[in-house]
Amino acid sequence: MTEFQNPFYRSESTAVEAEYSDGVTALQIGNYNAASMHFANAARGGHVSALFNLSLLWGGGQVTPYDFDLAADCWYKAAEAGHPSAKNLLWQLEAADRGGFGTDNLAKFTQEANAGNRLIPSIMICAARFFDVICRKYGATVDLIAYELDAASMSDLEFVHSFINRTGIDERFYEGGASRLKSGSAAAQVADGLNKLHTAMRHSGVSEELTIMARCSIVGYIIEKSPYGNQAQPLRGVDTFFDIK
Fold first, then answer.
1. The domain at 14-88 falls in which architecture?
2. Could you read off the pLDDT of 15-51 as tens digits, one per residue?
3. Origin, by domain of life (predicted)?
C-alpha cells in the first residue's frame, strides 16, 4: 500500500518506536487489526507517523469498527504535528467539515486517483463527513436515510440486508422512502451526490461490492450522527462487512 510510506517521524523512545515497527510488520503481512493496535500504542506515545497510518487504516475501512471520526481526528493531529502527507491533504478535510467540499470534487478526485479495488481513506473520510454536514445543514437527514434504506431494501444482495438490520431502524420508518423523495430537494441532491461518487469509484477500478459497501458506510455514518442512530451497531470494515450475520 503506497500510502503507508517511509516514516516521517522516529521516536526517541525505544518502546514507542518498537510499537511502530511492529505495526509496519503487521501491515506487511496483511494483519490490519494487529497493525491498528500497534500504531494506536505508538500514537499514544506521540508517534506522528503512527497517527497518520491510523488515519489511513481507519479511513480506508481496513478494520472494524469503521470509525470515520477517529480517522479524521488522527488526520488533524498528524497534520498539526507536521506530517507532510497529512498537511498536504488537510484542506480537503477542512473543506468537507465546513460543507464546502462539493460532490463534483469528490467524484473528480476519486476517478483521477485510479486506485484500483480499494477504498481511498481521504475520499471516504471526506465523503462521510461532508454528506453528514450537508444533511444536517439543509434538514435532509430524515429523507435521505429513508430513501437510501428503502432503495437498499430492494437489493438482491444479502450483505446489504445485513447492513440494513445493523442500522436498527424499523422498516416502517423507511418503507416507501424512495418514492417519497422530492425531485430537487436537498435529500435528492445528496442522493445524487452519492450516485456520482458510486459511478466515479466504479470508473476508478473499485468493484461493485466494495462500492456498495462504501455507500452503505457513508449512509451508516449519517445514521450514527442522527437521532436515529441510538440502536445502530458500529460500522464494519472490509474484514467483516460482508459477513451475513
1. Alpha Horseshoe (1.25)
2. 999 999 999 999 999 999 999 999 999 999 999 999 9
3. Bacteria
